[in-house]
Amino acid sequence: MSLLTRLTRDDLVAARAILEPSTLRVDLEAELARDFALPWLLRAEENTPPVALLLAWSVADELHLLELASHPDHRRRGYARLLLTALLAHARTYHKRLILLEVRRSNLAAIALYESLGFEHTGVRRGYYADNDEDALEMRITLNPETGTSMPSVV
């Protein structure tokens, strides 16, 4: 049984332990202060350390997925999929029109996960990642805000 919770100050050390192996740099304290931030943690069981983290921003009728990471000891167990499924449910509940993200071109596992949930490729950001000048693929899901059903993207 997995448990989704919002990040709190008490979770900062555990959240950093998820982010650091993936070399993701996030100012978690700043995200806690942002009204539009959705910093979520997933625990495998109640009262256990978190195993995965999702950070998205909710602005107007859009969600922008900024970070998604699983702790290295807990990868390939479906936790990222659970977090993304929760984000999709949130989008439908709050009548969002778009979920947007960028992903490294080389991150084939993440790309396959996003595609399996209905994300479509919409563009490329050349040299997007400063650490190695790697391109980012832009992906998104377009939702009908009234029904929550996925619609083909119009780019």
Description:
By secondary structure, the protein is of the alpha+beta class. It has one domain: 3-Layer(aba) Sandwich (Aminopeptidase). It has 4 helices and 8 strands, in the order βααβββαβαβββ. Strands 1, 2, 3, 4, 5, 6, 7 and 8 form an 8-stranded mixed β-sheet that branches. Strand 4 (about 60-70), helix 3 (about 80-95) and strand 5 form a beta-alpha-beta unit. It is globular and about 40 Å long. The model has no long low-confidence stretch (mean pLDDT about 90).
* Mean pLDDT reading: 91
Largest sheet: 8 strands, mixed
Shape: globular
Tally of contiguous helical segments: 4
How many domains, as an integer? 1
Q: Low-confidence segments, ≥5 residues, pLDDT <50?
A: none
Mind telling me the CATH class? Alpha Beta
**CATH architecture, please?**
3-Layer(aba) Sandwich
Keyphrases for this structure?
155 residues, alpha+beta, Aminopeptidase
Task: Present the secondary structure layout.
Elements lengths: L2 E4 L5 H8 L8 H6 L3 E7 L6 E10 L2 E9 L8 H15 L4 E7 L3 H9 L3 E6 L10 E8 L6 E2 L4
